[in-house]
């Protein structure tokens, strides 16, 4: 039987023996951590300021209130003077943000069908360099938009075109994780994936903490200019300083990407029948990770608006909380991988289930938050929630044959690319519909999604438990 010829135990040395034998030991050096840190620093630094700018332009240009009435939306300090406008302005602005997110995600969703397999031949570096160039251009357009007071909120949507056409965050993270997988051995991969996630968290924390202070010091336009320059720094470093992780990569331009054979190869490899319910396990892990990205995109533009409406926060209160939230996740990830996982020999899969369980509690507490400390409590009790994504990716690299890793990551990338086309519409519509009666409904939906992710991983664990007494060779063959 085919199922009697394969081991999917993540700790078994036979699983990816080909891959690990081909990877020579390398000293640790900074690679993707640097550009990801600066990218997230830029996003976090400008995020709330951009939301305020869109709210202000909506208030003035689309709802025709006076500049004096709408000025409170640009204030970095707490100000309850906008409470009578909040609901009206937020309902309109959520649809502007939703449309921008959808446009920003269309091209990455299409490109993700090809890029993973393409990178097996042409290298991982372009998957990071191209999006960073697009982000730099989009950052410049946002600066121009902020300087032109006469432009309404719908003009803001045009700033998403460069980052969309270049592959966006979907391509960048796919390239980054494939790059890290190429340069690390199996026993170091969980830690290195966590370090990559930690660089993302560190950039988010520093940007969130600095945001209100920079805004006070230099104003909106210069803050957005600093944000754009951070994208440029990340682009220059990646393009100039990083070497390609694939030794035999063949140079190829954008014209070689849209090859239907690449898409076909990805789907064939990801959906082929594998021993020990291997196909089901790969798909369940992929969907669990992608659903967590789905809810991230859905909540991305709404959390700040939720805290403004529910708790009457302004940008300063939100950025302090955002920094605390990310810091807790940052230390929880390191503490979890370096101490808890190694000390108690907890597997990647088991720890991922714990992470999703804590995320469910996190969202349920936020649902019923009525005072500020409830938000901080939600973050504190879910310190391991950030581990699900790096550990699932690490597990996939351990149980897959090396030639299939990029293809499965590409499938994950495709699903994640589709997520921004659906989740903002779902979340923004739900928030607009329930803002008057129950704005926490978006967190109930998020809790349901993380619960579903935990159930998916529970099935994977069940498949693995069924085969603990059998020795297998690899996850690659049907035989």
TrEMBL record:
Gene3D superfamilies reported in the protein's UniProt record:
MFS general substrate transporter like domains (1.20.1250.20)
Spans traversing the lipid bilayer = 36-56, 92-115, 127-148, 154-179, 191-215, 221-242, 282-300, 320-339, 346-365, 440-460
Keyword field: Membrane, Transmembrane, Transmembrane helix
The record places domain Major facilitator superfamily (MFS) profile at 35-465
Fetch the InterPro entries from UniProt: MFS, MFS_dom, MFS_trans_sf
Main location class: membrane
Tell me which domain of life the UniProt entry assigns to the organism this sequence originates from.
Eukaryota
Q: Which GO terms describe its molecular function?
A: transmembrane transporter activity
- What name does the UniProt record give this protein? Probable peptidoglycan muropeptide transporter SLC46
Organism whose genome encodes this protein: Vanessa tameamea
């Amino acid at each position: 039987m085919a199922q009697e010829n394969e081991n999917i135990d993540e700790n078994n040395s036979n699983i990816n023996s080909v891959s690990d034998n081909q990877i020579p030991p390398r000293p640790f050096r900074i690679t993707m951590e640097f550009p990801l840190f600066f990218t997230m620093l830029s996003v976090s630094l400008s995020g709330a300021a951009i939301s305020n700018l869109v709210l202000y332009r909506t208030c003035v240009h689309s709802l025709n209130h006076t500049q004096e009435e709408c000025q409170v939306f640009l204030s970095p300090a707490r100000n309850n003077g906008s409470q009578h406008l909040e609901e009206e302005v937020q309902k309109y602005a959520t649809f502007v943000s939703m449309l921008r997110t959808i446009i920003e995600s269309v091209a990455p969703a299409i490109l993700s069908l090809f890029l993973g397999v393409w990178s097996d031949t042409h290298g991982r570096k372009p998957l990071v360099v191209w999006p960073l160039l697009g982000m730099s251009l989009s950052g410049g357009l946002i600066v121009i938009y902020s300087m032109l007071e006469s432009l309404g909120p719908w003009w803001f949507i045009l700033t998403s075109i460069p980052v969309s056409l270049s592959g966006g965050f979907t391509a960048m993270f796919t390239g980054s994780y494939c790059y890290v997988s190429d340069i690390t051995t199996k026993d170091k991969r969980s830690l290195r994936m966590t370090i990559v996630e930690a660089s993302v968290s560190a950039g988010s924390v520093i940007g969130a903490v600095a945001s209100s202070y920079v805004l006070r010091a230099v104003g909106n336009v210069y803050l957005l200019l600093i944000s754009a320059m951070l994208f440029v720094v990340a682009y220059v470093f990646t393009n100039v300083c990083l070497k390609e992780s694939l030794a035999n990569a063949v140079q190829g331009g954008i014209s070689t990407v849209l090859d239907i054979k690449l898409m076909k190869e990805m789907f064939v490899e990801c959906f082929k029948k594998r021993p020990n319910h291997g196909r089901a396990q790969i798909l369940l892990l992929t969907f669990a990770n992608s659903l967590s990205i789905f809810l991230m995109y859905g909540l991305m533009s709404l959390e700040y608006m939720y805290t403004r409406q529910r708790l009457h926060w302004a940008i300063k209160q939100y950025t302090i909380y955002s920094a605390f939230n990310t810091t807790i996740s940052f230390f929880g990830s390191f503490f979890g991988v370096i101490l808890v996982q190694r000390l108690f020999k907890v597997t990647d899969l088991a720890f991922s289930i714990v992470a999703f369980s804590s995320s469910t509690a996190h969202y349920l507490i936020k649902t019923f938050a009525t005072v500020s400390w409830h938000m901080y409590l939600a973050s504190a009790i879910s310190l391991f929630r950030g581990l699900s994504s790096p550990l699932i990716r690490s597990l996939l690299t351990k149980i897959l044959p090396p030639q299939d890793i990029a293809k499965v990551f590409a499938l994950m990338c495709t699903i994640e690319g589709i997520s921004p086309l659906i989740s903002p519409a779902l979340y923004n519509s739900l928030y607009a519909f329930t803002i008057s009666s129950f704005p926490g409904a978006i967190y109930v939906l998020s809790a349901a999604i993380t619960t579903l992710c935990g159930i998916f991983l529970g099935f994977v664990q069940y498949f693995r438990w069924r085969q603990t007494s059998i020795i297998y060779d690899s996850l690659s063959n049907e035989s």
